[in-house]
Amino acid sequence: MRKKALALLMTCVLSMTALVGCGGNAGGSNETNASVSSGSGEIQKLDEKAAAGAIDNLVANTKDTVQLTIWASEMDQEFTQTLLDQFKAKYPSVKFDFQLGIQSEAGAKDAVMADPTAAADVYAFADDQLIELINVKGLTEVSTAYTYDVASANSASSIAAATYNGKVYAYPMTGDNGYFMYYNSSIFSAEDMVSLDKMAEVAKQKGVTIGYQKGGWYLHGFFDAEGTGHYAELQSDGSTSCNWNDQVGVDIANAIIQYAKDGVLVMADDSTAAEAFKAGTMGAVVSGTWAAQSYADALGSNYAACIMPKFTAGGKEYQMTAYLGFKLIGVNPNSAYLPWAMLLAEYLTCEESQVARFQARQLGPSNVKAASSSAVLSDVAIAAISAQGAHGTLQRVGGNYWASSESLSDILISGNPDGQDVKKLLDDAVDGITAK
Amino acid sequence: MMKKMGMSKKRKIGGAFKMVLLLLLACLWLVPILWLLVTAFSAYPGMSRTRFFPEHWTLANFSRLFFHPDSILQYGRWFFNTLIIALFTCIISSIFVLMVSYALSCMRFPGRQGIIRFSMILGMFPGALSMIAIYFIMKSIGLTNSHVGMVIVYSAGSGLGYLIVKGFMDTVPTSLREAAKIEGANELMIFIKVMMPLCKPIIVYSVISTFLGPWSDFMFARLMLNSGLSKDWTVAIGLYNMLDKSLIGQNFSAFCAGGLVISIPIAVLFVIMQKYYVEGVTSGSTKG
Fold it and tell me: How close is the nearest chain B Cα to the Cα of A166, in Å?
């Protein structure tokens, strides 16, 4: 039984590394396997042997029960459980005691920082928490590859999101965090959705609104739009640098206020937007893939999505951008079974798991092979976020970014109700954002 | 005669005005509770902001809580956990409080005044201050993520809350205890046979207050139960996690139902013990 499993594992490892290792190889996995006689294939094969040997050693040296706690988000529980069961089945000779806990990726940092030694051995988190998690020694560097090479298998941007000081600290799991536009295709045509001005025109005609969500995360879409020369970036001392308070920034702020004053741009969140879609009072909203199901339900056959539009400010047109985020799997260096934790993290993020995750949970993969499968590309929301990838930024801002940008977004999207001086608003916001 | 009539008319108008004002305030206070109540019976799982009363009524939220648990929503389990923790805390804490009060009220020993003063000062510090220290102490002895650990922490400091009970015991005539002593009773017998029957109202008070603490505690439970395992949670932690932003759309009315259900044991406890409770609170406060 064990031999059989080992053989199975070897084949798995072989095809896996061959797949990801020879990047330019267009053939299917079988053909790639057959072509190991080439020069690079030989080296590859040796590495695989070493890797498989490492797993073999690990299995042989594990006498007691492997106890691991895994944190996955609320929505990921069932799917993660099936992966854990499959992982157990892969190593039948080893006794596992897996405890699957509930921890949202967004809150992982707080939970780990509270007490890294009490945190889970393997946990999912959002990529913006990477640096802080490394600082509290909550992440192990990805130094060994047992079954596949993390850095070459995943998209470059997802690896950038998992890298700090040139070292990879986490295993990319999904690559679909970010925002784009959901819209009602009976109200807006695909051409309308290219420009916010066109959208506003149509919306006014048809008496509908366009929802924009509050907070600095979404406000980034306007202010750091392509061509504005704006930035909000994390500095090494944990503060944020930001230059939104120039003339372009004032133009952008005035443009947002004008959209809001026209009654076109309104503050919305996912639940109010879904209700408004259902009632037919809203034509489009900014949101992300997590809300895809509720928007698909609300819009029925008119469900559509596309990238963020262009907008005009001060007579110039800018392409809106979006923050891109990745969900990563991290391994806690305090784990008593570190090699197993790393092997499990690899399994949770390998190509097969990412495809299965997409099928089960509609989460877009970060693995390049998985992302290019036709099933993934045919998903409305995932296709939109993939397209948005060309107009996106990694979210790297300090803690002071959020409160100031959120209050700025509140004022702008509600149309500057108190008529405050726009330049002063931006100066205050930038002061708050760049505060040390 | 005329004057008298005017007076009573004025009084009537004033009374009516007061009533209207009170009615208005009562309505204001009751609206959120009514909203919780009707939302608990809503067939729409999320939070509806377009209507107050649900479109369709259902009991499904309650049956989901108790009969259809999933990997996150294990309400029955949470309810059981909380009940166990609260019951044991209630028993242990009540015994502590009553014994401390008896000792400080009825017995005379060196250092008694010092202990009273010291406990007064201790009681002035907010309990939250020590939470992190307690967490690490409990962790070092392996009692985090453990219900036993929670019972220990909840009941350990409860003796400090003796003031009201001691106040009540001070009102029991000394002659009763002296009589018992002359009959040959020791302190334990006096405590159990003489004081306890006389202290019924205040026992009820301390039972209710020591039960309510752990029953509705959130902060400490969140600190202690950090493994993320749903089966270990208490109701407060579970309800909190039900409202995660990715779940709120499918959980909000079940959350309201859960909120209603936790009020049931408290309500039952109050109804049973109401008579004594009022007596206990008021009589304890007459003499401090």
Answer: 32
Phi, psi of A312 (to 5 degrees): -110, 130
Tokens standing for residue A54: 């490492």
Q: What residues of B are in contact with residue A69 (Cβ under 8 Å)?
A: 227-228
Domain range for B43 is 2-61
Q: Is residue B17 part of a domain?
A: yes
Look-up of token digits 């850095």 = A151
Contact with chain B for residue A35, Cβ under 8 A: no
DSSP H helix total and E strand total for chain A: 20, 17
Residue A104 structural domain: 64-177+325-380
For chain B, positions 202-241, list CB contacts with chain A under 8 A: 223, 226-230, 241
Tokens 């995943």 found at: A154
Could you tell me if B152 and B25 lie in one domain?
Answer: no
Give bridge partners of residue A327 from the DSSP assignment.
Answer: A126, A174
CA angle, A158 as apex, A157 and A161 as ends, to 5°? Answer: 90
**What is the total count of domains within chain B?**
2
> Rounded to a whole number, what is the distance in Å from the CA of A219 to chain B's nearest CA?
20
The values of phi and psi at residue A175, to 5°, are -135, 50
pTM over 0.80: no
What pLDDT digit, counting tens, does each position of A71-96 carry? 998 888 899 999 999 999 999 999 99
CA distances B2 to B7, B10, B13, Å, are: 9, 12, 17
Residue pointed to by tokens 């060196």: B110
pLDDT in tens, A127-185: 989 988 999 999 999 988 888 899 889 888 889 889 998 999 999 999 888 899 999 99
Q: How many CA atoms lie within 13 A of A274 on its CB side?
A: 21
| Domain-located, residue B66 | no
Residue A304 token pair: 């559509």
Q: How far apart are CA A155 and CA A436, in angstroms?
A: 33
Q: Which of B37, B61, B85 is the last residue of a domain?
A: B61
Instruction: For residue B2, give how far its alpha carbon lies from the nearest alpha carbon of chain A (Å).
Output: 57
Judged by phi (left if over 0) then psi (alpha if -120 to 50, else beta), residue A238 lies in: left
Q: How much is the ipTM here?
A: 0.72
